[in-house]
Known about the structure:
The protein has 213 residues and is of the alpha+beta class. The protein has helices at 7-20, 28-35, 39-51, 68-71, 76-95, 138-148, 197-212, and strands at 55-57, 63-65, 98-105, 108-115, 131-133, 157-160, 167-173, 182-189. The chain has 2 domains: 5-64, Winged helix-like DNA-binding domain superfamily/Winged helix DNA-binding domain (Arc Repressor Mutant, subunit A), CATH 1.10.10.10; 72-210, Beta-Lactamase. It is built from 7 helices and 8 strands.
Amino acid sequence: MTAETSQTLDRGLRVLKLLADTDHGLTVTELSTKLGVNRTVVYRLLATLEQHALVRRDLGGRARVGLGVLRLGRQVHPLVREAALPALRSLAEEIGATAHLTLVDGTEALAVAVVEPTWTDYHVAYRAGFRHPLDRGAAGRAILAARRAPAAEPAYTLTQGELETGACGAAAPLVGVTGVEGSVGVVMLADSVPERVGPRVVEAAREVAEALR
Length: 213
């Protein structure tokens, strides 16, 4: 480092890069080892980054990149939506249900892109910006399932009536998108999710992940 650079800022940026390079987050101890600094320094760095929503810590204490990183660029969310829209539109039209891309924001699931089918007589009204707890609804549960088995092949999650009475959902996690936790899913008014929907949602999640890489 030169005299013109900030050691603290340099370390903070290194923390963000380290977290961006892992899908599963890092503990304070792991960050301390990788940075070559003591745990107290890491705690201070994380606390500062958390204040700006650049880092978040899950219930297990693992630090992950926060959505504040996305907010640094005003056009990032529109770009994410734009990248995901073709796969979501195809999914919505084929299934005849509202399709969505959901990302983790702290302890909540945040819908960042939504596409409604054009040909159905009725469908669930689901809007971008809608939030719900991660442990409720197919979108959040799919993300949690991927956390529990990060090395497993992507699988779909089904739910019934958890967010809206009479509605059911299917979702599959995004896999292989560094620094981003999310899922792709559909929500429909039905007693149960048709058998063909789950595999189709997994396929759409793969397409969105490819578009975001």
